[in-house]
Design a protein that fits this description.
single chain; mainly beta; Immunoglobulin-like; ten-stranded mixed sheet
Length: 156
């Protein structure tokens, strides 16, 4: 009987760890702006929704030497871009990374990013319990002039 209890306890522990290890953060519409030849930087954008209060701490990509979290904001009547350490992800609320706001800068690009390319991104988030989760995302490269989601087809 003791052996059965030990087996049951071990199984439950493994199952609960496995469930905790699965990310519950939702990433929607991840995309990257395509580049021209020799361009060394571009932006990555998406919506992030966390089920509990979390923070986006880090982004990595194999296509760039460096990936940084940035924010665009108005200061002294000028739009300025600055690196930020993290982005707060309030529980149950979508945070949009978009042109002109929070976004990811991919710097020191290793090759041109062409429209249609799938760009791997690794996001590192942390909950209030200090437990970190890693989320793998494939962002699709959109044409150079893209500023947001593609417009639906219009009928005239």
């Amino acid at each position: 009987m003791t052996h059965l209890k030990t087996l049951l306890a071990t199984t439950l522990a493994v199952l609960s760890f496995s469930a905790a290890a699965q990310t519950s953060v939702q990433i929607t519409d991840p995309w990257v702006r395509a580049t021209v030849p020799q361009q060394k930087a571009t932006g990555a954008f998406m919506q992030i929704t966390a089920p509990k209060a979390m923070r986006l701490l880090e982004v990595r990509s194999s296509v760039a030497g460096v990936a940084e979290i940035h924010e665009m904001s108005m200061a002294d009547n000028m739009m300025r871009m600055r690196q930020v350490k993290e982005i707060a992800l309030p529980a149950g609320k979508s945070v949009e990374l978009k042109p002109g706001g929070y976004h990811v800068m991919l710097l020191d690009l290793k090759a041109q990013v062409k429209a249609g390319d799938k760009i791997p991104l690794t996001l590192v988030v942390e909950g209030e319990d200090k437990r970190r989760e890693t989320i793998e995302v494939n962002a699709v490269a959109r044409p150079l002039g893209a500023t947001s989601a593609p417009m639906p087809a219009m009928k005239h």
